[in-house]
Amino acid sequence: MSNNNKTLAIKKGDQVKVIAGADKGVVGSVIQVLADRDRVIVEGVNRVKRHTRTGTDGGANTGGIITSEAAVHVSNVMLVVDADGDKTTTRVGFRRDEVTKTRSDGSSYPAHRSVRIASKTGKEI
Question: pLDDT of 44-75, one tens digit each?
Fold first, then answer.
């Protein structure tokens, strides 16, 4: 039973800090978000070695030991924001801003836009 329209507060490209696990305290950038599994892949965190079989891939021999990042549960990372020149961790909140949208015929109408905000600073992310 999977929910395809699930969203997380952490997005690709965000700076996050690992708050639990073997890599606790490491800060890295989010490479990929796996929303259906509640996991993120962070650059330089949870590195695993995979042994691949030697084979031919377009004429070149491939194989050996490949080191890459494995997924980390999203509850084990926290967003890092710049607060008054200091890098600090924060929770993510949401705010609904009222905006005016324009239709293709030129008429406009009021609408709402969801904005991510840093709970610690109150600023938009």
Answer: 999 999 888 887 666 666 778 889 999 999 99
Among all chains, which residue has been given the structure tokens 């639990």?
A: 20
> How many structural domains is the chain composed of?
1
Give the integer Cα–Cα distance in Å for 89 and 102: 37
- Within a domain: residue 8? no
**Residue 79, domain member (yes or no):** yes
DSSP result, 49-89? EEEEEEEEETTEEEEEEEEEE--EEGGGEEEEEEETTEEEE
Q: Which H or E run includes 109?
A: strand 108-118
Ramachandran assignment for 110, one of left (phi > 0), alpha (psi -120 to 50 degrees), beta (any other)? beta
Tell me the residue range of the domain where 99 lies.
15-118
In a domain, 106, yes or no: yes
CATH number, domain containing residue 31: 2.30.30
The C-alpha atoms of residue 101 and residue 112 are separated, in whole angstroms, by 9
pLDDT, tens only, 89-115: 999 999 999 999 999 999 999 999 999
Q: Report yes or no: 26 and 18 within 8 Å, Cβ to Cβ.
A: yes
